[in-house]
UniProtKB/TrEMBL annotation:
<protein>
    <submittedName>
        <fullName>Uncharacterized protein</fullName>
    </submittedName>
</protein>
<dbReference type="GO" id="GO:0004867">
    <property type="term" value="F:serine-type endopeptidase inhibitor activity"/>
</dbReference>
<dbReference type="InterPro" id="IPR036354">
    <property type="entry name" value="Prot_inh_pot1_sf"/>
</dbReference>
<dbReference type="Pfam" id="PF00280">
    <property type="entry name" value="potato_inhibit"/>
</dbReference>
<dbReference type="GO" id="GO:0009611">
    <property type="term" value="P:response to wounding"/>
</dbReference>
<dbReference type="InterPro" id="IPR000864">
    <property type="entry name" value="Prot_inh_pot1"/>
</dbReference>
<comment type="similarity">
    <text>Belongs to the protease inhibitor I13 (potato type I serine protease inhibitor) family.</text>
</comment>
<keyword id="KW-0646">Protease inhibitor</keyword>
<keyword id="KW-0722">Serine protease inhibitor</keyword>
Length: 67
């Protein structure tokens, strides 16, 4: 059986700090990366990492996902 990946669409527009707290509570993961505008990231897929994309004000711009 395939398990669905957690997604957090309700975090869009919230601060990165709020998003980190929710994701840690939901997953127990500590490898959470905040990605700002124009930041480069690796393209590798990791099940132990969540990326949070934020705007220049630190607000979440898209639902964070594992990978």
């Amino acid at each position: 059986m395939h398990r669905a990946q957690p997604r957090w669409p309700h975090l869009v527009g919230r601060s990165a700090e709020e998003a980190i707290a929710v994701i840690r509570r939901d997953t127990g993961l500590s490898n959470i990366q905040v990605v700002g505008p124009d930041m480069m990231v690796t393209m590798d897929y990791r099940i132990d990492r969540v990326r949070i994309h934020v705007d220049k004000h630190g607000r979440v711009t898209s639902p964070p996902t594992i990978g």
